[in-house]
Amino acid sequence: MDIPLRLVCIDAPSGTPRGTLLSLVRQDPQAAGVLTTGHKTELGRDLTGYATVTKDVRRLREAGTLRVDTDGLHASAHDVAAGGDIVQELLADSRWETGARHAVVLGAGGAGLALACVLTEASGVRQVILTEQSSARRREVRHILEAAGLDGGRVALAPATQNDSLVAEAPPGTLLVNATGLGKDTPGSPLADTTPLPARSLFWELNYRGQRPLLARAQATTGSTGGRAVDGWDFFVRSWFEALKTILETNWGRDELATFFRCAGEVQKQW
After folding, report:
1. Residue ranges of the chain that CATH labels 3.40.50.720
2. In this structure, are strands 155-159 and 175-178 parallel, antiparallel, or unpaired?
3. Domain spanning 80-233 has what CATH number?
4. CATH annotation of 18-78+238-268
């Protein structure tokens, strides 16, 4: 796959102000665009200064991809497109189809909120519970859900202090998503080691690297619980694919996606 881009990694610490992030792009005359995994909510919180924003940016207040052209910066959110196909594949599992069709998403950052919204639009989903540790972020997410008409409906927002009880009480066949980031750059797990995973549950770890102790526990207990565990590699690769499609303004399809996965797999072997 011939991609006419040079990738430059910029390690901007968590909490870097939006103005600082945007200046990093504007100061580089050769920049074609930006993909960010850790600053999506910061870039989407304030939409001033963008030439255009997509409906998902407006709806979710996250901007994971910025495309640069002569008009300025064009903001889009790639989590919805990246997670949509994976969600459909997971929900086609017999564990989900014969279960209560209940989902618990741990972590209401950009990816967690996007996936919660994707799940509300998926066929047959009855309940989505979204948890978040930060009270400020919960207030922000509550306003976003209200604006989207999802508050008090199929998406319930809860503090992360309820993670263990919500998971322990979840019905068989529950889709459980770790979107907290714990287990990758920050060690730990959003659940206590003693918290049982639901029977026949589908566990989706969004982290694509790191120790990921919750993923390891889910994988180790699939035999006894009848569940399934999925890591975050596919989501990570699809996110890059969707972002590059936007930045390059291409109409790549499934053939290009398959090639992209093969190329990413070769790179992963060198890690």
Report:
1. 80-233
2. unpaired
3. 3.40.50.720
4. 3.40.50.10860
Q: Which pLDDT belongs to residue 191? A: 98
pLDDT in tens, 52-93: 999 999 999 999 999 999 999 999 999 999 999 899 999 999
Q: Where in the chain is the domain with CATH 3.40.50.10860?
A: 18-78+238-268
pLDDT at 101: 94
* Residues near 259 by beta carbon (within 8 Å), at least 6 away in sequence: 1
Considering the entire predicted model, what is its pTM?
A: 0.93
For 51-60, 70-79, 114-123, 249-258, which range has the lowest pLDDT when averaged over its residues?
A: 114-123
